[in-house]
Amino acid sequence: MTWRLGVGAAVTWTMLTACSLAPAPADTEAAPTPPSARPPSSKVSPIPPSETASPQVAAMAAKALAQLDRIPVKGSAPKTGYHRSVFGRAWSDDVTVDKGHNGCKTRDDVLQRDLTDVVMQGKCRVMSGWLDDPYTGERLRFERGVDVYRIQIDHVVALGDAWRTGAQQWTPEKRLDFANDLRNLQATAGWANQQKKASNAASWLPPNRSYRCTYVARQVKVKAAYGLWVVPAERDAMRRVLAKCAP
Q: pTM score, two decimals?
């Protein structure tokens, strides 16, 4: 049976807007980039960026800066031994993080949270909806089975980056939790996800400059929660972004 949910993702774009500065298994590191990954402009509605940081974003940036100062700074570990499967089965529900064991694949949990005007089939299966993409500022249409590269799920702290900054030492269970933790997942345009790959904040930031403070603050929060470290260039890039939004 197909039925419609009311409008409302868990976090709206306007609450996440930041200041103006200066992308399956994990879609970031598995899927090839087809020519169709970037949505045709005729189907994209741009979202105007904010020019100033809201009080909420400014407070979030200040908190992230303080948190960043407590994260260890080390060099990058080698990528030796990394492949997607070291983080377990993609979109597994067999996890101890939020929404684990709810009977739905993690990808559908993310889509239910991030899309609006969601049409469902049953309890879990997201059939369609709209994404106000915070990474790109685009408004994108999701339809299950249609242009599957159009909307992908990004790991905010990429799995490859996590592997190089501490995840090699984790248990398989902790890596599976990390890969399916909703705090570290964001629906976004496929082309942006493919552009990012396994980059940290020193080498990739969202094209939508108004979201960069929120994006970096999310990375800091995830790295702190999981005991990951940052490399020097990454820490410096994070500080630059957050300092322009903090009061």
A: 0.81
